């Protein structure tokens, strides 16, 4: 699968969301961080803003729900027009049922793991998912330092994906930048969320292109991609 770069609008100017979304057209997806001030200690946006963003950009929306009661809310983000919906494993009472509901409503189903949540208990669920998100910071805020202690979990997840012959995408989110994206790609990630590294740059589109080039080069020299 080709490398994908997903700018996170968490680091954009929320008073100019439509313009900020257009500033990264050419990216694969627009990553939208939904926070409820319960699952994480921060509050961002909800369904009405997602509906407006869908109308404001041609880039498909990758909604990352950092909210409690994911079983109740995630389907509403599909109805709002999100093309991919990620719920947290820690916030879903019935993750298999929820993933099936998201797919049945027409979006890609994705599950996220906080840094302290291991992948191993979820091995049998992987075929139910289109993407697995490994958080490389504690969720809640942009601009945090990348947790390189997550690299072994990325490697183990890539091994499970290969072992089961799955098409599952492996996303990393948090502290992904020019300094860290190559380690993530070499470990096995193929979808990269970048907030501050894109919106903090003078030219966000150029930052997306530069990150893509770095990730493609790192993937090409990685052992996991060569094994395919
Ligand atoms: O989910 C998130 C935080 O919980 C964000 O997507 C993430 O932190 C992006 O910001 P940055 O690239 O600046 O770390
Ligand atoms: Fe995110």
From TrEMBL:
Pathway: Carbohydrate degradation
Alphabetized CDD domains for the sequence: RPE
Keyword Transmembrane: no
Catalytic site positions: 33 (proton acceptor), 173 (proton donor)
Note accompanying the cofactor annotation: Binds 1 divalent metal cation per subunit.
GO MF entry, a single one: D-ribulose-phosphate 3-epimerase activity
Domain of life: Bacteria
Similarity comment: Belongs to the ribulose-phosphate 3-epimerase family.
PANTHER family noted in UniProt: RIBULOSE-5-PHOSPHATE-3-EPIMERASE
Primary role: Catalyzes the reversible epimerization of D-ribulose 5-phosphate to D-xylulose 5-phosphate.
UniProt protein name: Ribulose-phosphate 3-epimerase
The organism of origin for this protein: Streptomyces yaanensis
Phylogenetic placement of the source organism: Bacteria, Bacillati, Actinomycetota, Actinomycetes, Kitasatosporales
Gene: rpe
């Amino acid at each position: 699968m080709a490398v994908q770069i997903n700018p996170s609008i968490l680091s954009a100017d929320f008073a100019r969301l439509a313009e900020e979304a257009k500033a990264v057209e050419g990216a694969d997806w627009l990553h939208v961080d939904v926070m409820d001030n319960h699952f994480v200690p921060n509050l961002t946006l909800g369904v009405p803003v997602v509906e407006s963003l869908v109308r404001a950009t041609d880039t498909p929306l990758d909604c990352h729900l950092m909210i409690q009661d994911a079983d109740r809310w995630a389907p509403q983000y599909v109805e709002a027009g999100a093309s991919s919906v990620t719920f947290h494993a820690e916030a879903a009472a019935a993750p298999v049922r929820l993933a099936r509901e998201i797919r049945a409503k027409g979006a890609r189903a994705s599950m996220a793991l906080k840094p302290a949540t291991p992948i191993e208990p979820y091995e049998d669920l992987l075929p139910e998912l289109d993407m697995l998100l490994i958080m490389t910071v504690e969720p809640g805020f942009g601009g945090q330092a990348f947790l390189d202690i997550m690299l072994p979990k990325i490697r183990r997840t890539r091994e499970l994906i290969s072992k089961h012959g799955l098409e599952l995408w492996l996303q990393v989110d948090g502290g992904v930048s020019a300094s860290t994206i190559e380690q993530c790609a070499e470990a096995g990630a193929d979808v990269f969320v970048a907030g501050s590294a894109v919106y903090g740059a003078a030219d966000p589109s150029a930052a997306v292109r530069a990150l893509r080039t770095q990730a493609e080069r790192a993937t090409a020299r990685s052992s996991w991609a060569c094994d395919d």
